[in-house]
Design goal:
The complex is a heterodimer of chains A (441) and B (508).
Chain A: E1 10-13, H1 26-33, E2 37-43, H2 45-54, E3 65-69, H3 72-75, H4 81-96, E4 100-105, H5 107-111, H6 116-127, E5 131-135, H7 145-155, H8 169-173, E6 179-182, H9 187-199, E7 204-208, E8 224-227, H10 233-241, E9 246-247, H11 255-269, H12 277-287, H13 289-295, E10 299-302, H14 309-318, E11 322-328, H15 337-350, E12 356-359, H16 363-373, E13 377-380, H17 382-390, E14 395-397, H18 399-403, H19 412-430
Parallel strand pairs in A: 1-12, 2-3, 2-4, 4-5, 6-7, 6-8, 8-9, 10-11, 10-13, 11-12, 13-14
Helix pairs in contact in A: 7-10, 11-12, 11-14, 13-19, 14-15
Chain B: E1 2-4, H1 12-22, E2 26-32, H2 38-46, E3 55-59, H3 62-67, H4 70-84, E4 88-93, H5 95-98, H6 104-114, E5 118-121, H7 131-152, E6 165-171, H8 178-191, E7 195-201, E8 217-219, H9 227-237, E9 241-242, H10 249-265, H11 273-283, H12 286-291, H13 293-296, E10 302-307, H14 309-323, E11 326-332, H15 338-345, E12 351-354, H16 358-368, E13 372-375, H17 377-386, E14 390-392, H18 411-425, H19 429-438, E15 458-459, H20 461-469, H21 472-488, E16 493-494, H22 496-505
Parallel strand pairs in B: 2-3, 2-4, 4-5, 6-7, 6-8, 8-9, 10-11, 10-13, 11-12, 13-14, 15-16
Helix pairs in contact in B: 1-7, 4-6, 7-9, 8-18, 14-15, 16-17, 21-22
The chains are: A alpha/beta (441), B alpha/beta (508).
Chain lengths: 441, 508
């Protein structure tokens, strides 16, 4: 069976001319996740325009985020940064009374070298609201990496001891060294993954981030930590280096294969023998058969924009798809080591070529390759989706994978629901015989 | 610094990109950090564009901060020249890149030595002008560039056409109902026997710009884009222009009369009065509609208007003059055009508001409590919250404001569309009366037995909480599926475990 056609993983790096969301977009899901927070994005009209358009209707629901829009006086340092931020934060405190204010630094604050990290502690002491600074800018990061910068900053704020000894019970009863998971997930998914581990006798003593800033988990030296998303390498580094925790390097719980591998790795570190995992995985695969039969033997091309690409490619390979290319904004080979190993093992197992991983892709070149390869499905950003559809190529917007629930056994079906949707829809349309809708070549 | 949740007009480079991407074979390169190419998403999503948006970024990253972006920008311009062979490449700075104070003009000059295409640097200041002003300026810049070029090659077509002809200036990508408006204008000019010389910038070629002066006059349908170009052409080539927006019956007539006066002054002998009368009374439905008894119910109803200068002014006039509606206040976010706006609407409303602060507009609406709002998508959402109907009449807009069907706001068909929009925004006349007489809708509770009420399945407190977290529009389905699953495996308490088991096993 496993006559491996592939040797090692091949990595390429292109020009970085690709479309992705600005990392400040993390504000849109993090403000909903952290219920007592307020996010202040310190930037220009361009940042604000992106947020208001990308977040669509959400903007009208009185969001707990706003722009501190820089004006000419701020750029030329005619105005005093401290005074300006103080004025705005006092107003936010008065209007919303949050438990924490996040300052999201942008490209502009980087270029004019506004000392947010220096100002924050002083202002925090003065107005008595915690201020956490994250530099989620487009000079350094792409899309989901924004969350990474915020969580890395939050990791420093996790308490060393519980203030209230009475709710210490969960830690005391834990039969193993405490485990803290990191990555922002919708509450139902948090519950699902926590329960999945509980079945194996593993207790999650906290999540970074928690539902409220005031409930950030205790993180002490020697604790174990595990990531749930592939784009959290800075957070992982911070937890290891600054908080002296031990990182469990595992594939990510995306797809039944990933979820099982994730749990198994955690169990092995905790010296727990996993029970019933194999059967559970099998049952999930069986329940997915109706969707898998639609994509088995088909090909997929990831243009790359959100760093979930390797995990999704690995899952889709296991579903029987051929992956032509994995475009990805940034590849941390250390943090994703276990995921990359599982990708390789999956390719061997399914007897398919290892796809090329293209870091910092060049969208123009990619469209050329897509024309040559004619994949059955292209997973891409919204800038390219309609033009590709008009040329008869099935596409799925990559952004949906970041907003849908895709983690754990329970949500494997949701990933396939997304992946198969264009195929299911276009199957009926192709019978009409109009595949190309553009007069350009 | 300004605390801002929402803005009516976007940053300057968006205006430049809207102009550049409207022309054929013009490619824009943004000097911008990763993620600033959101314009491509808007084109592709809102306009459902079938083709790749001709905009790429020359990405500003850490390396650029350290070393400058000269090589990169020049390389990106020459690369696009090879790949797409455009007629023109426009380099546009963004908010971020403009503070780097690199000599972009120098890069443009250097690149243009190596390119087949012309190369221009968009002349916009990100901290002083907004999207609309930048668009106006960029169009003028491109037209000026090609007119100057044609002049030095002696290629300007100054010979006027034999019969009256016009250039329509200001049809722009991502403009509010622009494409429909332009189609309607073409029809109008055809009716008036005026030949259309050129329509710019949408779908135009920069190579044809040298033919602009052969038209008798220029027509500027929207205040926001085209005026600067019209003034340039007036100064350089002595071309007159008409800038009365033909929106509404009265203004359309005023616009046509102004055209008549203009072409007659240039030697034509036309009389459009009969055409105006025929269109107004018998072809367009809206004048008759205003007169019909149904429309009487709108008399004196209170409305407010907010939008860009063109649309807010025109709609205010229509509501007041043509429909007898009381406009409590009308406003615009085009602060730079305040004087013109006030002058236009002063006599048609109680108060004029000029502000780009949506919080202030929201508060004012709440205080005014109008029967209907005519505004942008922002006012629509304010209306939703206050339970006041809203007709969307101006950008900024969402995807539903890019309708597939024919919906012009300009010309005689436009008057029909606007009449429908206004009428449908108010609670219908008769319904209104009946509700008043009978004191609201029938409130007797409908007798119905829900499926889930048949047998008793209990939800644990935890599961119930989880259920409540599920968004409202799918909650019912999840509840039914879960209960069916529990019933099928004879469980009468739904716990979190049961809930997720159901999700895994019941294929939705």
């Amino acid at each position: 069976m496993s006559t491996a056609q592939s040797d090692a993983l091949t990595f390429e790096c292109e020009t970085g001319n690709y479309h992705t969301f600005c990392p400040i977009s993390c504000v849109s899901w993090l403000y909903q996740k952290i219920e007592d927070s307020f996010f202040l994005v310190i930037g220009t009209k361009t940042c604000g325009y992106f947020l208001q358009n990308a977040m669509g209707v959400m903007i009208f629901a009185e969001p707990r985020y706003a722009m501190a829009e820089l004006e000419e006086g701020d750029i030329s340092a005619k105005l005093n940064d401290y005074g300006e931020l103080r004025r705005l934060c006092l107003q936010i405190k008065k209007d919303r009374n949050p438990s924490v204010i996040f300052w999201i630094g942008t490209c502009t604050t980087e270029i004019i070298k506004m000392d947010l990290e220096g100002i924050a502690p002083k202002l925090e002491a003065e107005i008595r609201v915690p201020i956490v600074v994250a530099r989620a800018n487009g000079l350094d990061y792409a899309f989901t990496q924004g969350e990474d910068t915020v969580l890395a900053a939050m990791a420093q704020r996790c308490p060393l001891n519980l203030k209230n000894q009475s709710d210490n019970t969960s830690l005391k009863t834990s039969p193993h060294i405490p485990l803290v998971l990191f990555g922002s997930l919708p509450d139902p998914v948090v519950t699902q993954l926590t329960m999945e581990l509980k079945k194996q006798g593993i207790f999650v003593s906290g999540w970074l981030p928690s539902k409220r800033y005031t409930e950030l988990p205790v993180i002490k030296e020697g604790y174990y930590v595990a990531g749930v998303n592939p784009f959290l390498s800075r957070t992982a580094t911070t937890l290891m280096r600054r908080r002296k925790t031990k990182l469990i390097g595992a594939p990510f719980p995306i797809g039944p294969d990933g979820t099982r591998a994730w749990i198994e790795k955690i169990c092995s570190v905790m010296n727990v023998k996993p029970i019933g995992l194999e059967d559970r995985e099998k049952a999930i695969w069986a329940s997915l058969e109706d969707y898998i039969s639609l994509i088995r033997g088909k090909s997929v091309f990831f243009m790359g924009d959100n760093l979930l690409e390797v995990s999704l490619a690995r899952f889709l390979t296991r579903c029987g798809m051929t992956v032509y290319e994995i475009g990805i904004p940034y590849m941390d080979k250390r943090y994703q080591a276990a995921e990359l190993a599982l990708l390789k093992a999956t390719c061997d197992k399914m007897n398919v070529m290892m796809p090329t991983i293209v870091e910092k892709p060049d969208n123009y070149n990619q469209v050329d390759r897509i024309r040559d390869l004619k994949p059955d499905l292209v997973i891409t950003g919204m800038a390219h989706a309609n033009p590709l559809e008009a040329r008869g190529i099935n596409t799925k917007w990559s952004v949906e994978f970041t907003f849908a629930q895709i983690h754990g056994f329970t949500n494997a079906r949701d990933i396939l629901e997304l992946v198969t949707r264009p195929l299911r829809r276009n199957l009926s349309l192709s019978e009409l015989g109009w595949d190309v809708y553009s007069k350009q070549s | 610094m300004k605390l801002a949740y929402w803005m009516y007009a976007g940053p300057a480079h968006i205006g430049t990109l809207r102009i550049a991407s409207s022309f054929k074979k013009v490619h824009a390169i943004m000097h911008a950090p990763l993620g600033d190419d959101y314009f491509n998403v808007m084109r592709s999503m809102l306009e459902r564009d079938r083709d790749f948006t001709p905009v790429t970024a020359s990405v500003v990253d850490r390396h650029v901060l350290a070393r400058g972006s000269q090589e990169k920008v020049v390389e990106n311009i020459t690369r696009k020249d090879r790949e797409e062979s455009p007629d023109l490449v426009i380099l546009t700075p963004t908010c971020t890149s403009s503070i780097l104070q690199e000599d972009l003009q120098n890069f443009v000059s250097r690149a243009s030595i190596e390119t087949e295409a012309d190369v221009l640097l968009a002349d916009v200041n990100h901290y002083r002008v907004n999207e609309l002003q930048a668009g106006d300026r960029t169009l003028e810049q491109i037209v000026t560039f090609y007119m100057e070029k044609a002049k030095s090659n002696n290629q300007v077509l100054t010979q006027k056409t034999k019969t009256p002809s016009v250039n329509i200036i200001g049809a722009v990508s991502l403009g509010f109902h622009n494409q429909h408006d332009i189609a309607e204008l073409k029809r109008l000019f055809q009716d008036l026997d005026i030949q259309i010389n050129q329509i710019i910038p949408e779908n135009a070629s920069v190579q044809d710009l040298k033919k602009l002066p052969s038209a008798w006059f220029n027509f500027i349908p929207y205040r926001e884009t085209g005026l600067m170009t019209a003034r340039y052409l007036e100064k350089e080539f002595n071309m007159p222009y008409v800038d009365i927006t033909p929106m509404g019956i009265v203004q359309t007539a005023a616009c046509i009369r102004s055209i008549q006066q203009l072409v007659n002054a240039l030697g034509a002998a036309v009389d459009y009065e009969k055409y105006i009368d025929e269109q107004t009374r018998f072809i367009s439905q809206s004048a008759w509609f205003s007169r019909s008894i149904d429309c009487q119910n709108l008399t004196g109803k209170k409305a407010i208007v907010f939008g860009d200068a063109t649309h807010a002014a025109a709609i205010t006039r229509i509501l007041h003059q043509e429909m007898g509606i009381h406009v409590a206040w009308c406003g615009t976010y085009c602060k730079y055009d305040e004087e013109w706006f006030k002058d236009q609407v002063q006599e048609f409303c109680d108060e004029v508001i000029v502000s780009d602060d949506h919080g202030l507009i929201g508060d004012l609406i709440a205080k005014t409590e109008p029967a209907a709002i005519f505004g942008t998508q922002m006012e629509r959402h304010i209306g939703k919250r206050l339970n006041i109907p809203c007709g969307v009449i101006s950008s900024p807009v969402h995807i539903q404001n890019f309708p597939l069907s024919y919906r012009p706001f300009l010309g005689y068909e436009g008057t029909n569309q606007i009449a429908d929009l206004v009428y449908n925004s108010f609670t219908l006349g008769m319904e209104d009366h009946l509700l008043e007489i009978f004191g609201g809708h029938d409130t007797t509770e409908a007798l119905s037995i829900g499926i889930s009420a048949v047998d008793s399945i209990n939800w644990s407190e935890e599961a119930q909480k989880e259920l409540n977290k599920i968004p409202g529009f799918v909650r019912g389905k999840v509840k039914r599926n879960t209960e069916k699953f529990a019933r099928d495996c004879s469980k009468n308490l739904i716990t979190l475990e049961v809930m997720y088991e159901a999700k895994e096993k019941v294929s939705s």
